[in-house]
Structures are given as C-alpha cells and as structure tokens.
Design goal:
Distance between the termini: 18 Å
Bound molecules: adenosine monophosphate
Strand order of the largest sheet: 4-3-7-8-9
Radius of gyration: 16 Å
Number of strands: 9
Largest sheet: 5 strands, parallel
Order of helices and strands: HEEHHEHEEEEHEE
Shape: globular
Structural class: alpha/beta
Number of domains: 1
Number of helices: 5
C-alpha cells in the first residue's frame, strides 16, 4: 500500500483531547493489516545499513509501533514512559511545554554505552517528546542512530529539535 493510501485511512478528530488540537487517529491503520504491514516495511527499510541494538518506543502509541518493529527485527524493545509507570530504578528527563513541563523516564539499566538505538513514535508534532527521548537515551549512555515516525506534522517544525537523522512515513 502506498503512503498516500495509508494516509487516506488516518482520521482527523477535532478538539481531541482538548480544544484546538486536531488529533490524528491511527487506529484505522492498526485495523488494516495490509496498511500496518506497509508502515512496518517502510520502517524496516529505514533501518537498512544501520547497526541497531535496541528499539526505544515512546508511550503510548509508540509502544504499538515499536513492539511490532522490535519483533520483526528481532531487537530488544525498550520503553520510555511517563513518570511513575516503570517499576524499577529509572533515569528521568524533564522538558518545558508551552504551559508547564513534562517528564519522561527509562529504566536506568535498560541501555549501556555500547548501545545504538532507534527511537519510534506515532506523531512528530512540536518535537519536544522526541527530543526529550533523545536526551534520555544519551543520559542512559546510548547513541541515537535514528528516529522513526508514522506521521510528521510539517508546520510544527518538530524536525528542527531533533539531533539524530529521522524518517517519517506520512507528512501533513
Ligand atoms: P510533540 O512533543 O509536540 O512532538 O508531540 C508528540 C507526542 O504527542 C506524540 O507522542 C504523539 O502521540 C502526541 N501527539 C502530538 N500531536 C498529536 C496529534 N495531532 N495527533 C495525535 N497525537 C499527537
């Protein structure tokens, strides 16, 4: 399935989860195995030639895509979660939002200085979440090889916040 056909499956939900946000609902892709497989094929191609040790997935829709990719690539899956969700000792990274701040966490023994990771999430919007995850992986000692996104929202210019190279399957 072409990116354009997969794109046509994504549903815009206005004012969700709050007013002013147009939420990109990817569940129709998850419900369509041919579309879902096309997304995975794209991600697999993006990893060609890279020496990757871990897939690092961002809560929560990043978990779905990351888990699928990790199994297909037979790579370990590492979770980056909101505070208080990971059960063992964590490293955390806090970052500023338009109003207030947010924190992400990773298990402190999840990565080592030998590791070269690929970060995955569903949407690249302002880039704050992805940038924070890059910082978290570096804090944990690992090198970020690449970031992967299903959707990139071009006008929010999130790409400018990223340090490692990235690929997005669909752009709006
Ligand atoms: P940001 O930090 O602004 O790049 O936001 C990225 C994170 O927020 C991702 O984990 C997305 O799941 C979520 N997100 C941001 N904007 C949207 C949107 N319009 N539709 C769906 N998810 C979004």
């Amino acid at each position: 399935m072409t990116p354009e056909t997969v794109k046509s499956l994504i549903k815009d939900v206005k004012d969700f989860p709050q007013e002013g946000i147009v939420f990109k609902d990817i569940t129709p892709i998850l419900e369509n195995p041919v579309a879902y497989r096309s997304v995975m094929n794209f991600f697999i191609n993006c990893l060609e030639g890279l020496k990757v040790t871990h897939i690092v997935a961002i809560e929560s829709r990043g978990f779905i895509l990351g888990a699928s990719l990790a199994v297909l690539k037979e790579l370990p899956l590492t979770l980056v979660r909101k505070p208080g969700k990971l059960p063992r000792k964590t490293i955390s990274y806090s970052y500023d939002l338009e109003y207030g701040s947010d924190t992400l966490e990773i298990h402190s023994d999840a990565l080592t200085s030998e590791d070269r990771v690929v970060i995955i999430d569903d949407v690249l919007a302002t880039g704050g979440t992805a940038h924070a995850t890059e910082e978290l992986c570096r804090k944990a000692g690992a090198q970020v090889e690449k970031l992967l996104f299903l959707i990139e929202l071009n006008e929010l210019k999130g790409a400018s916040k990223l340090q490692a190279p990235y690929n997005s399957f669909i752009q709006f």
